Amino acid sequence: MRDTESADLSAHLQSLIAMRREAVQMPAPSEPEKIPAKLYGIMAVTTVLTFATLVTGYQLLFPPQQLFA
Fold first, then answer.
1. Inter-CA distances, 57 with 10, 13, 48, 64, 68, Å
2. Using H for helix, E for strand and C for coil, what is the string for 3-35?
């Protein structure tokens, strides 16, 4: 009984290895996809807004001058 389970497992592993090898051997695309300019604009706006939010929050929590001297 143990030999048949081992044989089934071995056959299953062999088929799994064959499937993975077929998936790996697919050719890569010839050209990378081009990113539209609109996406670069969104990334730039997001970067600026994130920086502004962090700077404003830092200045609110740690003001440059002391309020109570």
1. 60, 56, 14, 12, 20
2. HHHHHHHHHHHHHHHHHHHHHHCCCCCCCCCCC
CA distance 65 to 59: 10
The whole-angstrom separation of Cα 28 and Cα 25 is: 9
9 contact partners, CB below 8 Å, separation of at least 6: none
Per residue in 1-43, pLDDT (tens digit) is 466 767 777 888 888 888 877 766 667 677 888 889 999 999 9
Q: pLDDT tens, 52-67?
A: 999 999 988 888 777 6
Residue with tokens 């200045």: 59
The tokens for 33 are 């996809």
